[in-house]
Amino acid sequence: MLNLSTASIIEKNKVSTDGVWLLMLEIRYDGEEALRLVNNTENIAYQGNTYYAFPFTLDDITENNNELPTAKLQVSNVTGTIQRMVEAHNGYTGAEVIIRVVNSKIPDVAEVEESFVITGTEATAQWMIFTLGSEFSFTRRFPLVRMMKDYCPFKFKSPQCGYTGREMQCNKTLSRCRELRNSVRFGGEPTIPQGGVYVK
Fold first, then answer.
1. Strand, coil or helix: what is 102?
2. pTM above 0.70?
3. Which of 19, 43, 72, 79 would give a disulfide with 105, using CB separation of 3.0 to 4.6 Å?
């Protein structure tokens, strides 16, 4: 259940109001200037940034026990402006997409804010279609580095290892690291219990 702010509840319960609920979109890609759009007839300012009026639609977000949340975002491509930006940025694949819902009468307060990652892009004459998904993936290794009790993942004499002595070999165990007086840089996790740790 969505919890609205007190100001939004008051605005929602008014018999008559000229306030409207707006859907805003922010796409962040590779440290560049974010693309900010609002599904409105005029630009709006939100937290010091301008959101440009531009037509787009967002399908219902699928969310259940069997799959990660996904959604289809369609942004107008009639002018070709968005497509040119997409092509210049490798399809925006991997870009962060933040979707916000705000009330025009309550500035700088987002009643809903969801974050996604673009996992796919399609183009038609009318729409740029982005597939939004979660950054987490069951097909990627997590954590990226395997953590073991008595094994160092660092390459011998690498910057992470830090050993600068004359020895030429290391079996990557904590005992060998201690022999080389380099245990402060040991990359294993000696505090892991002997039986191992299982994440459920």
1. strand
2. no
3. 19
Integer Cα distance of 170 and 156 in angstroms: 7
List, in sequence order, the alpha helices (H) in 40-99: 81-88
Helices (H), 51-165: 81-88
What number is the average pLDDT over the span 26-51?
Answer: 91
DSSP assignment letter at 181: T
CA 63 to chain centre: 17
* Burial letters 39-55, b for 16+ CB under 10 A, else e: bbeeebebeeeebeebe
Contact (Cβ atoms closer than 8 angstroms) between residue 144 and residue 136: no
Cα distance between residue 24 and residue 38, in whole Å: 4
Kindly give, in sequence order, each residue whose CB lies less than 8 Å from that of residue 102, ignoring residues fewer than 6 positions away. 21, 22, 24, 46, 109, 110, 111
For the stretch 51-67, pLDDT in tens is 999 999 988 766 665 66
75 within 8 A of 127, measured Cβ to Cβ? yes
